Amino acid sequence: MNLFEQFQRLANAYFLFLLFLQLIPQISSLAWYTTVVPLMVVLSITAVKDAIDDVVKWLPGPLADILLLSSSEPYSLTYIETAELDGKELRLQSQDSYSFFFFFFSGEVRCESPNNRLDRFTGILIYKGKNYVLDHDRLILRGCIIRNTDWCYGLVIFTGPDTKLMQNSGKSTFKRTHIDHLMNVLVLWIFLFLGSMCFVLAVGHCIWESKKGYYFQDFLPWKEYVSSSAVSAVLIFWSYFIILNTVVPISLYVSVEIIRLGNSFYINWDRRMFYELKNTPARACTTTLNEELGQVKYVFSDKTGTLTQNTMIFNKCSINGKFYGMHIFLLSLKKVDFSYNRLADPKFSFYDKTLVEAVKRGDRWVHLFFLSLSLCHTVIPEEKVEGELTYQAQSPDEGALVTAARNFGFVFRSRTSETIMVVEMGETRIYQLLAILDFNSVRKRMSVIVRTPEDRVMLFCKGADTILCQLLHPSCRSLRDVTMEHLDDFASDGLRTLMVAYRELDNAFFQDWSRKHSEAYLSLENREDKISMVCEEIEKDLMLLGATAIDDKLQDGVPETIITLNKAKIKIWVLTGDKQETAVNVAYACNIFEDEMDGMFIVEGKDDETVRQELRSAREKMKPESLLESDPVNSYLTTNPRMPFKIPEEMPNGNYGLIINGYSLAHALEGNLELELLRTACMCKGVICCRVTPLQKAQVVELVKRYKKAVTLAIGDGANDVSMIKAAHIGVGINGQEGMQAMLNSDYAFSQFRYLQRLLLVHGRWSYNRMCKFLSYFFYKNFAFTLVHFWYAFYSGFSAQTVYDTWFITFYNLLYTSLPVLGLSLFDQDVNETWSLRFPELYEPGQHNLYFNKKEFVKCLMHGIYSSLVLFFIPMGTVYNSVRSDGKEISDYQSFSMIVQTSLLCVVTVQIALETTYWTMISHIFTWGSLGFYFCILFFLYSDGLCLMFPNIFQFLGVARNTLNLPQMWLSIVLSVVLCMLPVIGYQFLKPLFWPVSVDKIIDRIHHCMRHPLPHPSRAKRKHASSQRSAYAFSHKQGFGALITSGKTMRAKMSKKNTMSGLPLPTLPSFNPYKQMWK
């Protein structure tokens, strides 16, 4: 199977075809081993690499998705580690209160078809005539590790490629670099060039045989199968096709893979990309895209968890129209004292004591607000030591809110599937949990329905303001307006917000609704849609309590990183689900936007025409001539409206920023508006797309890929970034707080956004430069090597006679020249990492692919042609009519062959020495050691012993010792090296003088700085967000709701522990001084 995959490559298939040609005696001009040996080495190395990749890929985790039936723990709990799936260290898996002993189990499972939704599973278990609901909390997915559970039994649901993990990982398209695509084109050009040379030589052979060979048959008779010179020419065509095959190097692809593998190890080993707090190194998940890292033009970034820390801190709140929180003038004050609450989290900080005073004096709305936060969530508590609570939350936002309620006196203590225990101002109260309406990306809210100790049915809801505002009771209009103003203030500080509301339910109404909810929950088809419709019936006419604001600080080094990337001409677009002004304020804080910008365009139209006008008016200000019919892009679109093309770079008349929301983006991505959006956005310094869906993120990336001749990179940390990461040329995953999905689907992964500059400007630029040098040199040395045969044909009667010894042909690419080029490609540096980061402008040549393109390939071809002429005619002129000191001639074929091949190796060795800019001991060993190795193996292959033992294979008996002592040989080598290197040295000297590029000037500046060191650059200052920018955001994710309501979430020993600590679950308080708050 591996061989089949390898022969899908055109080059490998070509050499297999070539091997078959060499087995035909009538046309074979080379021994079969000249192709077999290199081909076997290439196939073996590739097979070993693929085998290692497969072993690493298939080792971890079980190989099936399993439905949990029973386990050793109470209530059939199973503790599993899902780090391979979502980054969580430990979570609970439950089979509800019903369990089935596997020996006697006989039932039927009906479930959905295989899909890639890790967070969803729909099915029904039919057992003894009863239907049991199956969801994702009953499924142990492939890749999970079972912990703290003695045994469990399960039923296999999906296996192999049908498992959810494989459904997620198997849909990615194989990414290839721009250089890969260019190489395919160049190899096709080389095939055509090879065919042309063979045709010319075949025609020459036909003419020579007609005019001379026909009359020379007494000495060189034709073979019996040759009836004419035309037939002989056809056979000679294929003979030269075999001889000149080295113009397409067989070791090219395997050398490229080795180089990429080595450069990937550099990324994995980079200590400066190692994040000590999480003990996580940077990781190259692919080895095929390294040089593409040196060509990135557009970076598409998520905001939360990528630019920010995704570590949430409760900062401010609005309760019943009153503002509470930390003001700037309060920063110098002491933190609020929570010593009155023995269960408070000591790490929690708050600076506004008025909120604590409101709690202490029994403010009804404040109590109800924090009670809502302590009840409306899916957090799972752990209390290993009495009084030391830890919360496991599916989102950092939810954990921060529950912790805030805990510190203000409303402590979420424990829960079961049916109850929630809250310690309110030191007094324990038990709430009966009736339903959890969990969060999802469509609802953007979650609710809980509880029965209070006073037997009242209450619904508590929290969610995005855009959603909850539509669900409020009309009587809340004035309170809503005040709260919205507070939300604007929160957003101006870049805080993440949500609204909190409640509703008291009639018991009869709830019972009727509960029946509908159960029916929807048991439905096998469209279960989620039906549940959502039922939820909408009860989540209405809500009473507004207030709003929360959570601070998500920028990661360290983000502003400095973005400044550096901007200097490298890399454009950064932020694609986020947050509200507009929160995203904008973060953009200002991290220097994507600047206060000194010439203008800021906001696209917020709600129909196609409005969006078009907003985009065109922005483009008119940035570049008025882009709207004229004479504009090149407009002219092309007019004449070729349906032809695919690449939009060139358009330079605006200043620095501008673009902001567009998800609703307007949906219109702008339509076919007739996408080019308007693209041209406008690409002229801006920074772009913010807010309130966008995961699909829209991918569509934006695809739009730039389709119409811009540029490399794109997407970076994110959550599952909602996966589509964007897969769509980009390069995907980078951040190891953050939102799980492992982004990392599992990425090409590169690390823990901090600031490492991106090192990935691109150091590793990416080095990889690109090295790959370009490798390709230029590799094609050059093979052209110089192969074309000598072409010139020799004119002196050998076009007889398909080779210039070199067959063993030299076999080992040329495999041994003699492989190590020097690998040393160059793995160790060379034009400047070190410090200067690469100090001068980001060095990155620009890669964005325009200046170092290796079709023009550079033609230069390599011309250079190879010139070198081959020198390498053939200088040795010929040297040995022509020459004699030894003893009078014997030296112009025999074998001596000439050895002089040519030795001159060739010396020339290509000196050439690579001139290309090398960073010498190490390994570079010296590889470069000069390979040349020394050639002379050593020369004496071995041309030794008397081998030639006498295998005279048909080793035929150059005594040539080495007889030729190496000739002064003519060393004269030929010196002349060949000098004549081949003079043009190269002259070009390298004159190019910066007459055809300078920006990089040459920067290199000169670096050399000047090395002589006169510059002071270390100061860190960029973060700018405070303008108070005029305001909006708000909401971030949350689906929690443990279904697990909580469907089974016990605490083990029996935890329950015993709680009972021993004086907190028995069934005991209700006899008196509650705060029960008046419900009236």
UniProtKB/TrEMBL annotation:
Record key words, sorted: ATP-binding, Magnesium, Membrane, Metal-binding, Nucleotide-binding, Translocase, Transmembrane, Transmembrane helix
Name this polypeptide is given: Phospholipid-transporting ATPase
Matching SUPFAM superfamilies: Calcium ATPase, transmembrane domain M, HAD-like, Metal cation-transporting ATPase, ATP-binding domain N
Residues that span the membrane, as ranges: 7-24, 185-210, 230-254, 774-794, 806-827, 860-878, 898-919, 931-957, 969-990
InterPro entries: ATPase_P-typ_cyto_dom_N, ATPase_P-typ_P_site, ATPase_P-typ_TM_dom_sf, HAD-like_sf, HAD_sf, P-type_ATPase_IV, P-type_ATPase_N, P_typ_ATPase
Binding sites annotated in the UniProt record for Mg(2+): D302, T304, D717, D721
GO biological process, one term: phospholipid translocation
Subcellular localization(s) per the UniProt record: Membrane
Organism of this sequence: Phocoena sinus
